[in-house]
Write a structure and sequence with these properties.
By secondary structure, this protein is an alpha/beta fold. About 25% of the residues lie in helices and about 15% in strands. Helix 5 packs parallel to helix 7. It starts with 13 loop residues before the first strand and ends with a helix.
Length: about 450
């Protein structure tokens, strides 16, 4: 079934009230390039994240969560829509218009698709977005503002309009929480942190914390993560001070795995048009906790990222779930169930609600397949040996990865072998045949090119 950009009549949207309007608040913290191993609670040797560690101690740490892409814009599209981003021809990051056109991408995420914040806003939630956007680009001035996607308030960068300073996200989020509490409304906040994406915007206070480190690159990396962790702590304190902790679902995750330079790189300053000057890719020292590959890979190092959930009284505290196969496309149906939102009958999600899994009723086998599509290099690059996968599928216990032409494969039992150590492709020809068939049928549901009002005026002149 092809998805078309003529979406739902939201006037038909209904929600089920939960004892008046004491529905749970939802705070989704989505970091940028934060690797699975970049947490002190995940064993990082020098990065300190006491506030995220607090979430893990007071909630559940889900080790099998995956995002829908190895790069940011498609990963964020999945969160917003509950769909695989390939359905919208969003296979890479939104850049300047000629680059988007060259890669057969739209210039922004369509306004005429299912949108998580809009669904919650229509049901009575106060909605806000703070931090990175990148569902368009600041270099496309006629792209829609975040407010048009269903947010009552926003402060963002990598979007059209004014770019907020990257370190103001927590301050603005705390103010919105206070405002929503005063109004007696449940809130939904997407807090999309800049860290640890390049440029690395260091602050002396945080570099001083790691002054004993010999490596300047490591000191830079540790300092920006420490700064981000402190800002998360500020918001947790706001929830505590307002008495909202027990009725607020807080999730910390990342849009993809950690970035790494492909070879030896000199540490130097760089400039980003959205966020300003900071240190470059040489200071990207993120780790994956033993998973293969990094950002822009569909091996687990690129898509298996932190996913820590705190919801007092609902989610187990201090627990680890290393069984549940949860995906970013599951977030929309999950959040809507928590909020009491009834999804329109015309909406067919790619994900499933994971409320039961969050509450500890995990399943070792995922019934609904997951799919990935990315533009990747072939033959396999020597300097980036895990960045060749263009298509991937997880179905039941199997994960199949294939190149662009679907003539080279690797197969892993992702349940028993989550670190992808043993390629089973040669011994399972029938499994490969079955999974390739599913990939080809899924490909047939995708549009050949973007459609709808998703092109800038500059694009129309190309």
């Amino acid at each position: 079934m092809k998805l078309k950009s003529t979406f739902f009549c939201l006037a038909l949207l209904s929600f089920v009230p939960l004892r008046g309007d004491d529905r749970a608040n939802i705070l989704f913290i989505f970091a940028d390039d934060w690797g699975w191993g970049d947490l002190s609670c995940h064993g990082h040797p020098y990065v300190k994240t006491p506030n995220i560690d607090r979430l893990a101690a007071e909630g559940t740490d889900f080790h099998r969560f995956t995002v829908a892409s190895g790069v940011c814009s498609p990963s964020r599209t999945a969160v917003m829509t509950g769909h695989f981003p390939a359905r919208y021809n969003i296979d890479g990051h939104f850049a300047w218009v000629p680059s988007n056109a060259k890669r057969n991408m739209p210039d922004w995420l369509s306004l005429d698709v299912p949108l998580l914040p809009r669904l919650l806003q229509q049901s009575g939630y106060a909605t806000a977005h703070y931090g990175k956007w990148h569902l368009a680009n600041n270099m496309i001035p006629d792209s829609p503002l975040p407010s048009e996607y269903g947010y009552d308030e926003y402060g963002a960068f990598n979007c059209a309009g004014e770019q907020i300073p990257v370190h103001e996200d927590s301050q603005r989020a705390s103010a919105f929480i206070e405002k929503s509490a005063k109004a007696g409304k449940p809130f939904f906040i997407n807090l999309w942190l800049h860290e640890p994406h390049t440029p690395f915007h260091t602050v002396p206070k945080y570099e001083w914390r790691f002054r004993e480190m010999e490596s300047e690159e490591d000191r830079i990396y540790a300092s920006v993560l420490s700064h981000a962790d402190d800002r998360i702590g500020e918001i947790l304190d706001t929830l505590d001070n307002l008495g909202l902790t027990d009725n607020t679902l807080v999730i910390f995750s990342s849009d993809n795995g950690p970035a790494r330079a492909s070879g030896p790189t000199e540490l130097k300053l760089m400039y980003d048009t959205a966020t300003g000057a900071g240190w470059g890719i040489a200071a990207a020292k993120g780790i994956t906790g033993g998973r293969k590959g990094y950002k822009s890979a569909l091996f687990q190092g690129g898509i298996n990222v932190p996913f820590i959930v705190r919801w007092p009284g609902k989610v187990g505290d201090g627990e680890i779930d290393d069984r549940s196969l949860i995906s970013a496309v599951d977030l929309l149906p999950t959040f809507c169930e928590i909020a009491g939102v009834k999804l329109p009958a015309s909406y067919v999600p790619d994900g499933v609600s994971q409320v039961e899994a969050l509450k500890g009723k995990s399943s070792r086998i995922r019934e609904k397949p997951l799919y990935w599509k990315m533009g990747s290099a072939w033959p396999i690059p020597e300097s980036r040996p895990y960045h060749w996968v263009s298509y991937a599928i997880v179905d039941q216990k199997w994960k199949l990865m294939a190149n662009q032409d679907l003539d080279y494969f690797e197969l892993y039992d992702i349940v028993e072998d989550p670190f992808e150590k043993v390629d089973r492709a040669k011994g399972e020809p029938e499994v490969i045949k079955q999974l390739l068939g599913k990939v080809n049928r899924w490909k047939a549901t995708l549009s050949e090119k973007p459609t709808g009002n998703v092109f800038s005026e500059e694009r129309k002149q190309l």
